[in-house]
Design brief:
The chain is of the alpha+beta class and 369 residues long. The protein has four domains: 88 residues, conserved putative lor/sdh protein from methanococcus maripaludis s2 fold; 87 residues, Elongation Factor Tu (Ef-tu), domain 3 (Beta Barrel); 53 residues, OB fold (Dihydrolipoamide Acetyltransferase, E2P) (Beta Barrel), CATH 2.40.50.100; 76 residues, Helix Hairpins (Orthogonal Bundle). 30% of the residues lie in helices and 35% in strands. The chain is built from four helices and 24 strands. Helix 2 packs antiparallel against helix 3. The two termini are 67 Å apart. The N terminus is likely disordered.
């Protein structure tokens, strides 16, 4: 009898212990679920697109918006070059001087001619005034007055010719002191002091500082798809910098450019810092044809910002069935502006993470915004 009672008590005791253990496990599981929910990273997801606007990709170079070759119209020895390559110059700053002794001698001659012509004019004017009075008093004939009037007008013409000759000499003299046409930077120095300056031959090259644009050559099979005002994405490789610009100029002739059509892409002022003329750029231009075109094969498009780079691998994060982040390795194709083609690794209409409020890694709980 006592043994039966003891067995019942033991059974009841084990049953109570089992209930306590199950209750404890269930409580721990609930606490872990609550804790995981509270620590989940908030993410934004999107579905890939399967089409892209057709863009045209060309290569170009950064160049100054304004460039000037400093040269002269007179022949002479270069006496002084006051700047060197890399110097910043201001507008109207003296850059180069050229020997001008012969021009100064000509100006002295013209000054003497002006003095002589002025004296002859004064004398002719007095004769004209005197004979006019005599003619009015009927003391001089009309023929005499006509001759004096002709001499007076001839003296006026000789004085004016001498003055214009001096203007011509002064103009030539101005080309012996070359100044900067605008503020900029000296980029080339083609002659040195002591060299002979020839008319039209560049001595210095100046580029306007802080004002840049991108020039590119476009083949004839693409030029019809480009128009002024089109959006352009400029990637400066050396700076790893992407700039949004606009097509400002499209050359309609390729006669002097080897069958290539030149275009210009503007760069916003706030993006010009750190740029130098001559830097290479990749340009992606939105074409006139706005009809969507499908990507090759089964590829889909995702934003470049969602791609993860690790060593030589590329991937992106998706959301697993247990609401955790899952890193998916993918193979990429062509780039279309700010989107890239995913050839393998991501199915069409499969959501992926585009933004996270915290750091992501495999298995971390996530909460879709």
């Amino acid at each position: 009898m006592s043994m039966t009672i003891n067995r019942q008590r033991v059974t009841q005791l084990f049953g109570a212990l089992g209930i306590l253990v199950l209750s404890s496990c269930s409580s721990d599981k609930k606490e872990r679920i609550v804790a995981n929910t509270d620590s989940a990273v908030v993410v934004t997801v999107a579905e890939p697109s399967g089409a892209a606007q057709q863009d045209l990709n060309v290569n170009g170079q950064v160049e100054a918006s304004q460039t000037a070759n400093i040269s002269t119209r007179v022949m002479g020895i270069i006496t002084l070059i006051k700047v060197k390559v890399g110097d910043h110059v201001n507008k109207d700053q003296l850059l180069v001087t050229i020997s001008n002794q012969d021009i100064l001698a000509k100006r002295a001659q013209t000054d003497a001619m002006i003095t002589e012509a002025q004296a002859a004019l004064n004398n002719a004017q007095k004769d004209f005034e005197r004979f006019t009075i005599l003619y009015n008093q009927q003391s001089a004939t009309a023929k005499e007055l006509d001759n004096v009037t002709l001499q007076y007008h001839s003296a006026q013409a000789r004085l004016e010719a001498a003055k214009q000759m001096r203007n011509e000499v002064n103009a030539s003299l101005s080309y012996t002191s070359l100044t900067a046409p605008f503020s900029g930077i000296v980029t080339r120095k083609l002659s040195d002091a002591g060299s002979m300056a020839n008319p039209g031959m560049p001595i210095l090259t100046i580029e306007q500082s802080g004002s840049y644009e991108v020039a590119a050559s476009v083949p004839e099979n693409m030029i019809s798809q480009i128009h002024p005002g089109a959006n352009a994405l400029v990637n400066i490789k050396s700076l790893d910098k992407t700039i949004h610009g606009l097509v400002t100029q499209v050359n309609s002739s390729s006669q002097y450019t080897g069958g290539q059509y030149m275009i210009k892409v503007s760069i916003p002022d706030n993006e010009k810092k750190g740029l130098y003329a001559g830097m290479y750029a990749d340009i992606s231009i939105t074409s006139k044809n706005t009809a969507p075109v499908g990507t090759e094969g089964d590829g889909v498009l995702v934003p470049l910002s969602s791609i993860i780079y690790k060593d030589q691998l590329t991937g992106l994060y998706t959301v697993g069935s247990d609401h955790t982040a899952l890193l998916r390795w993918v193979r990429l194709g062509r780039t279309y502006g700010d989107r890239v083609e995913v050839l393998t690794g991501l199915a069409k209409n499969e959501p992926f993470i585009t933004h996270a409020d915290g750091n992501l890694y495999n298995g971390i709980p996530v909460k879709v915004k």
